[in-house]
Amino acid sequence: VSNTSQVPWVMSISYGDVEESLSTAYMKRVSVEFMKAGVRGISIFVASGDDGASCKGNVRFAPSFPASSPYVTTVGGSGMKNPFGISDEIAVDFSGGGFSNVFDAPAYQKEAVERYFQHGTQIPESSFFNKTGRAYPDISALARHYWIVNNRVPAPGVMGTSVSFCESR
């Protein structure tokens, strides 16, 4: 994309891996490319993942990359309390989220994260996560109880943050 004159205005990524399985140099290099895309006016949306905070051995949460990059918009998942009627929207338990162990919290989110730590409920012990890391997701959208129709056959119950980030574009 960096060598082309015509670029898509929106790109989406429905892939991720835990930060600890990737090299820091790789994640920082890829994030530079995300930043360069942003300078060109390209918005990159990334699914937050479907493993919650991915706790490794009940010792520490495992953030996901590229969801943890500060140069993308990471989309988490929500659902309707009653999927068969009009009801409240709630967070879904599988939606990925957390704090990066590689990237510091960018200035644009520090105030919101501080408010979260001051007023949030059920915050895990700080030993489980990097309190100063880039927080994600940035936004959330419906990720549960989608109906997909294939060859006129409805398939109910489709879910995942790969669904929600498409809705956000």
Ranges where pLDDT stays below 50 over 5 or more residues in a row are: none
Number of beta-strand segments: 13
Order of helices and strands: EEHEEEEEEEHEEEEH
In whole angstroms, the N-to-C terminal distance is 19 Å
**DSSP summary: helix tally:** 3
**Overall pLDDT:** 88
How many strands, what sense, and barrel or not for the largest sheet? 5 strands, mixed
Radius of gyration: 17 Å
Q: Give the percentage of residues in beta strands.
A: 25-35%
The dominant shape is globular
Helix content: 10-25%
Structural class comes to alpha/beta
Q: What does the model show?
A:
- With 169 residues, the chain is α/β, with parallel strands linked by helices.
- The chain is built from three helices and 13 strands; from the N terminus they run E-E-H-E-E-E-E-E-E-E-H-E-E-E-E-H.
- Strands 1, 3, 7, 8 and 11 form a five-stranded mixed β-sheet that branches.
- A hairpin with a 3-residue loop joins strand 4 and strand 5 (60-61).
- 30% of the residues are buried.
